[in-house]
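Because discrete structure vocabularies remain unfamiliar, it helps to consider an illustrative case, giving the amino acid sequence and backbone structure tokens:
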Amino acid sequence: MSIKPIQSKKLCRQCEEVFVTTSKKFINCSSCRKTEKKTDWVSKFLNSNFGLWLVNRIAEHQTFKAVDFTSNGLSELYALYKLRKKYCQYSYNKGWSSALELDLCHLYPVKSGAEFTGELSPRNLIIAPSKINRHLGNKVFEVGHKVGLPPPSKRVKGVAAVRQSIKKNKSFRGAVIAFQSTHKLKPSKKGLVEGVIEAKGKFSLMDVAENEFTRLSLNVPKVGSAEVQFMIALQGAQSLRPSKGQAICLDKDELKEQRLWATEPWVRELSDVELTTFVNLKLHLRDGEVTIQNRNFSVGRLYDSYIKNDLHNRFSCTFLNKEVSDLAYEEVVRAFTGKCNAPIQQIKIEEVVEDNW
């Protein structure tokens, strides 16, 4: 004979509504307990390394307009935040140190001296040497992406105001809760350097430069050292476009002909955009460009990365999202190999879960 649990009525200490429970531990109703859990998620986010960094950056910008404060927007920014730490290559020997000193630098600066501020977004941030970031400061070169500042009376003033807005604003709070349901960040630990990630694999400064220029679709001349190339990028590399070897554009008749003469059935099933990219890559027009997953790439650089068995590594640093990175990789490799399902190469960058430091 089973014993039925005894139900009792209690008064919720939060909403002061009566609720029924079989537990002696519960002092709040289920609705308020769920709210408490979500509040705890927000608190952990705000006290995590990424949350502390983000709050300080928004305070510097003085407006939430500079950041895409949605779950997806936060996830993209977090992926870039982690990527910088991977490139730093931390190690421990009687204290933490890094092989490279790198910052998330704004292409359009935070303080321009005008009524604008640079976006706090992956498209306006570049991982670059800290000393270059300090040297350029808030100089404006009219590159990157910016947003207009609200009137002084409506600007967010100080870290405390930013934290309070995230806690109270339903939209911001909802974005953090959705983000935390996936990433589950925890408060940082005292006595340790900011958010260390021990990443396997070595990166030179030139590796970082090439990966970042590809991620941002910057056409930077291969001249001088990596530092020189970063200086060029931060001072307006977007205006530098190749003047020769443009990609072949196929009209409807040419696309039809390509499908007609294709020896593999899967080639005929490609979309017009994919087929055009396939033809350009197959011809190995080294001076040309192709568009893959809405980003422009040099055919020559793609082929060089493929030969060096480094293509998947490059794409993983460019797109940040693994699914998009894999699609881009497959699109290029099938053109170079003529095979629809080419095996994925060994990825040199290891995915690292939030460090919780």
Observations:
- Residues 244-357 form one domain.
- The radius of gyration is 25 Å.
- Residues 238-245, 345-357 have pLDDT under 50 and may be disordered.
- DSSP finds 14 helices and ten strands in the chain.
